[in-house]
UniProtKB/TrEMBL annotation:
This is Gnk2-homologous domain-containing protein. InterPro entries: CRR_secretory_protein, GNK2, GNK2_sf. Residues 1-20 form the signal peptide. It comes from Phaseolus coccineus. Residues 23-125, 131-236 form the Gnk2-homologous domain. Belongs to the cysteine-rich repeat secretory protein family. It is found in: Secreted. Pfam families: Stress-antifung (PF01657). One of its GO terms (cellular component) is extracellular region.
Amino acid sequence: MHSIFLNLLLFFISFQGANSIMSPLFRFCFNHENYSDSSPYATNLNQLFDLLHTKVPLNGFALDSIGQGMDKVNGLALCRGDVNATNCMSCVNDATKKLQERCPKKKGAIVWYDYCLLKYSNEYFFGESDEKNKFYMVNIYDVDDPATFNAKVNELLSGLSYNASQTPMLYAVGELQLEKAKTLYGLAQCTRDLFGPSCKKCLDDAISELPDCCDGKEGGRVVGGSCYVRYELYPIVEA
């Protein structure tokens, strides 16, 4: 596990500008083995990017493999469950460009946006929960009663973990009414190469990490290569 990143807190203020939607949240160049521009791997990777860009807007998720042997590249793309096809395609298209810019010639990389994630590797990873590529984001504002609030966050997200694992999209959103007319909003989602029980375990593990990053904070996320959870005191999905 990338311990240096598990200790990294990306401070995320409640107000988000419009430009943040199409800006990368984070990325890992997790395979330091390089390929050359003229190699079959480079050709296969470009073909994979084109294929994912075409396929993912159809239902918000796509995976595929291109090539053979050591030149084979595996990849997947996932859009947030509420994102429409146009924004999904745009996000994945931008993600392919950003990965090539920020992880040049690397044989494995992943990038996350608010709207999508994109991952590729020379190693086969479909159906396996990615516990290595993970980061936190936290709202800088504190709540008045951390113990009570944390319990409500766990209640909401635990329910969403179960709901997401029971749906074909492996995605769930929900809300919980709090005191003082406040509403807690939550989201849970897995990549659809996981089965329901694996999705739930991934989400439950992510929820268990929230105290490490986001104790008593108004909002937070644990974002991984196979699943992520998020909560805020404002709506976090498209209306």
